[in-house]
């Protein structure tokens, strides 16, 4: 069970949060203009990294805010916590 | 039935107000409307009659007598009438449980993952957190020894059930 | 010859005698005894019969690594199977029974299995008992297998949980753990110290070995006393760490009452702790390895360290004439301790050719026979050991030459020590093989150091230094590894590795021969390590034997994955309060008491207890429902709709936002108007439906299905925070602030008009699908004229605590009109008559808006919204998708929802045309009504169909969904 450092509330138990899956998924600006393959990609295709996963998390039982987390899928180390609309951070050596 | 050692009172109908704002210079203006200093993240402030708890970056809970809370909500709506403002009377939607005494922490720790040590959650600390499987606002009150546990009124029987489950008895 | 009680025993209180039962006989012990120590003291040797072959078995260990003495305690609802006798604290009137033996331990008929051992080795069930059908044999095999009986009644005990935080969690109450806790405590850190057993001091409990100049017992007592003066230190015994998770989280199971007499127990039986620690210090000790040789499972063959433990802790000498077989120094230490305690040590047999001269001298001083370079070949005896045959070892550690028979009543074995690395590994710590100890040691793990025996350090001085924070390298005398003792390369078929699952050294070789060469395959193929002791005395021996057999180094083979729980942990403690009504918050309506008084039968719908129907004197449920429907259709009814979701959405961009959320266009809604809206997920699936009301230009009230409000509010926030961050909108769920009473029926207006208030109820002033706010009988009210029943209907919302008052007023006003309370079943019947959608009944995970009559709405919406693109996939555009239709069923009874709809003539074909989604008896039209989702249904009006209804073929006709008032004149009245 993770200890997650909510940007607003500080470190809290994972039980207060909900994971929203992979982050930085871009919703097509004009969905009508994209083909079925591109729309399926947006809906379903996700990375499955052995390494750092960039994810959205919601502090559901706390401040109610969404934010981003960089989590190592091999050992659950949380490498970074950053704002919902911030870009993916540069991490040293993927650790 | 053995007596449960963790005195508490639960009330429905305590004045509870909810304020959400999208505006500039919020702290000063909100403070002026409420008549108290607006709290920082994870804190409660009070002017004796009205308390304010910061639940999120732009979200506040007001607690006090219902008339005072409603009046405060009106003042907030007025002051922020040119901004985006939701100032809602939630008095009928909430239950406030007052937990008192040394055993209170033990009861809270059974259902809540917060670090409740006074050095981590001191007087006037207040936050939304998880209690069993429901969301509550928890505040340590000024005497240091008692707490507000504020939840949805429809969860009152569930909260009571948890507070009684496995509680130490005489 | 067997065990006796002697002097000493730090755990027991000789002034306090306890009575208990074992295998139907009365026994006595002392407070502080375990079931094992008390029985040993009384000369009991036979504790069980093995799992498969029903071989007689006795204790080998003194703790939770015990694989043989598996017992069941108490009876009825209180019975608990699968407990290890050394881990059961004795209490007055304890009733314990052996398992897996009938009619008795001494005379077990199933021992005949042992005669067929050749035919039922490991994994026999993959190769035999298959023809003609393995299911014929499975029940017999299952009945013959299993230790203990599962309770047949509900667990009567209460369990609780708690959360705790500290700077340092010390797991393990031996010398190292005590020192670490004291050091941290003295530094002012918040410390939690936990040990799984009742005793403090670990392997040195009750020992007079010197620790920093004091006898161990004194050092332990002084340390405990000082710990108790520190308010920042919490110490608990009977608290076993069961799992080590991420970021310093450790789960521990505290046994609160298991050690007390049954009638003295109050409160929760066990409590699960979730401790979040800044640092987790693992002082979890080490487990001794058995030696693997023929008949090493005879009662009386035990681990050397266990014998010492029984002496020091409980004052029990395990035997009268003891031989010690060892490959390391600790076996000698055990022999000396036992000799000091009054035991006769017949011989020490050391596999090493040259043990330390100090050891040899000590043995000589006590006149103990010594054999070096020698190891046991076979234990001799029937139901207990009476001798051991030993032989010399050649350079390849194979037995060779003459055997010598040593008479004994007890054989103590020590094959080395395995640090308890379970918690270290669970948290991701790596292991390395120590070349001197031939054991797996913990490699460095940031945030969780291992100290003492858990780190392979068996020396007091260095353990204490590590506990206090000094770096060190453990130094130890090399052992002589003996994985399996035999004369040839073939392991002995009667040399036991996993005692509880009856796995032999030959089984390990069998697995390797059958190409199950990885350690994970070895485990599952042979079941080695899969019993309730989780391989604590067998895993490493198994890896060693496999290593020898394959010629592969142990570190290359590795260990199996360590997973929580560390020791079997009762399921109840993981449930805690989440039982019965504590499993999910169960909510009650504002007028709950009134509904019950009016005869309501309540059931749970979406987490709320709601009236199914109001049963009057002598009525069946069906009759009540029919009566209620007729009352609403002909007069007026009252329904509580409080669980309907109500979400305030406010801001200059509110309308734009809602346009992106709903299939329908919301921005064109005028103030005071309502619109029925459907919400999709991005996959185009219908997710929720409800009525949206515009209160003002920038202010909307979003209605959701009952019980769905907080989920929808969360979705709205998600879009605003993650995707459309520039929209200026605020969202607030206000569902439980407002109680909602629905007044429905042709007389609804008449009833409401008699209440004093500010709302104009007349048809022209308050048309259908509109909203008014005002005062009703002095109460703040919001009224929506919307209908799910199809009659003239008003949903009246007042602040929750004023529901009683509104209810009273309405009941009084409605009496003259025959106002009738109606429940969910009546409402569902009426909406089915009207062909109104119910999300979750007509819709499933594939249903899109065009399937249920919203094709036009979809086509008319010009701007993008959530899920729109997904309704334009090829599959979404198929003409033969399942579509919402009505089915006129040939009566008299309604069909079951889920019944498949089939074209006549194709009753035997595979597949169907769809299924019934909702069904009811309609008192309004006097026939069964149903809704269904049928392939291409919209184009099949009038078609005859067959319906497979719970084993009978029924006939029906596809009709439009709405069977009552299709032009809506009653709605618009």
From TrEMBL, chain A:
InterPro entries: SoxD, SoxD_sf
A Pfam family reported for this protein in Swiss-Prot or TrEMBL: SoxD
GO BP term, pick one: tetrahydrofolate metabolic process
Molecular functions per Gene Ontology: sarcosine oxidase activity
Name of the protein this chain belongs to: Sarcosine oxidase subunit delta
Species assigned in the record: Sphingomonas tagetis
Lineage of producing organism: Bacteria, Pseudomonadati, Pseudomonadota, Alphaproteobacteria, Sphingomonadales
UniProtKB/TrEMBL annotation, chain B:
SUPFAM superfamilies tied to this protein: Folate-binding domain
Superkingdom of the source species: Bacteria
InterPro entries in UniProt: SoxG, TrmE/GcvT-like
Gene3D superfamilies: Heterotetrameric sarcosine oxidase, Probable tRNA modification gtpase trme, domain 1
Descriptive protein name: Sarcosine oxidase subunit gamma
Source organism: Sphingomonas tagetis
TrEMBL record, chain C:
Keyword Secreted (UniProt): no
Record has Ligase as a keyword: no
Every SoxA A3 domain range: 495-576
Highest rank taxon of the organism: Bacteria
Domain GCVT N-terminal: 592-861
GO molecular function: sarcosine oxidase activity
Family to which the UniProt record says this protein belongs: Belongs to the GcvT family.
NCBIfam families to which the protein is assigned, alphabetical: soxA (TIGR01372)
Protein's name according to its UniProt entry: Sarcosine oxidase subunit alpha family protein
Species in which this protein is naturally found: Sphingomonas tagetis
